[in-house]
Amino acid sequence: MNYPTVVSEFETIKKVLKGYSLARAGDGEAKIMTGEGYSREPKNRALTAELLDTFTHPHKHCLLAIPTMAPEGPKYENWLRHERRILSLLQAERTYYSAFVSRPDSAPWINVREYALLFQKLWKGKRAVVLCEPDSSTIKVVKLAAEKAVHIMCPHEKAFAHIDKLEKKIVDSKPEVVIMSCGPTASILANRLARRRIHAVDFGSAGGFLLRLLKT
User: Fold this and answer.
1) pTM for the full model?
2) For residue 146, how far is the Cα from the chain centroid?
3) Torsion angle of C-alpha atoms 102, 108, 111, 116, degrees rounded to 10
4) Considering just the CA atoms, what is the radius of gyration of the chain in Å?
């Protein structure tokens, strides 16, 4: 199959705003799904199996996001190096959404206040649970507009080893929305939580640029 046309970043967020969860995959996740490890998660059969299951059998309310391979992107040549590996994981009949919703380095057109305000609607006025590292900008940006932001901390590395405990903490917190920044563990949790009818978003590293745009 040819590389699919991927739904744009703005349209991806608009779809997520309708209550869909979002699981994202980049080069690190692709390596894991093909049996390797990467900097934050060493090779792990259980992680590979569940991440692969997430991206081949997602819940109907969980969107799958992949690199767009848009030629106009400044990192297009870099992403081309991973195209074959990513393509081997895709299904021809499925609609894919953009993994660059949190990557202005790969999609500079999202680096505008209009986009930041759209993204902020995910948690504005809501009880949000934020899964991220202790010093992450993710919790800071969510606190700007959430009615309440409950911070659940995760480690910088090997977060998957704690996934069951993290899931329980999230569920016990009774969130309206879950914002997660914890590597490939966030993708898996987005799908697990979608099965529980909990709105969960793999946020990536969007906190920094959104915080800057929303404070201007």
Assistant:
1) 0.96
2) 19
3) -40
4) 16
